[in-house]
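We modelled the chain as a single entity of 224 amino acids. Its sequence is:
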Amino acid sequence: MLMRICIALLCFATFPIALVYAAIGVLQIRVRDVQTGYSVKARVKLEGPRTLSAETDELGCLRLSLPPGEYSEEVAAPRYERMRSHMSVQAGKTSPQGFMLDPVIPPPEGKRFSRSSRRGSRCLHGYAVDERGRPASGVRVYLQKAHVAAVTNERGYYWLSVPTPPEESKWLRGIDNLLVKKAGYKTIVHRNIFIGGADGRGYLLDLVRGPGRIELDDTHHLMK
């Protein structure tokens, strides 16, 4: 009889805990630099069913358990513009959210890029980051049709200059395929990227650790 009472009490004690757990939602935040893709350590302020202020880790990540409802957010970091947003947290669900902050001072590579464009050519440049949002050096970036390649430096930066490709149509500049390779990471293939515009194009490259390849088609809807 005593054992039955104990079991009944145990079940009664865990029941409200399960209800509380189901009434909580999870918010996963990641903060990055919009130009480089680097992780940014930032402070996040929330106002809503629960008001709080918390810091991300060194990788710009923050995980919070929150009561469900509507929240207003403010993300701030030194040397970056503040960013504000609204989002909804749902009970029993995880809501991922990414913030791309604008730096107050652009990265130094932007000056080189602005001086690199010349008549009859187009530039492709950007940054490669690893799975932790850190600069990835030694990444080979190759344009398949133009037969032009570059390797990222210690800041994960790459820069390519190619002859202006012919237009595919009256709406679109020429296209090419971008291949991204680094030992220990999946090969990334960006098909049909656009090499056009007076200022060229910039691409952020997110590396994924492991074997195999990732195929992405950047074809514009006007070409479909």
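As a brief sanity check on the tokenised model: The helical segments are 2-22, 109-116. The chain is about 15% helix and 45% strand.
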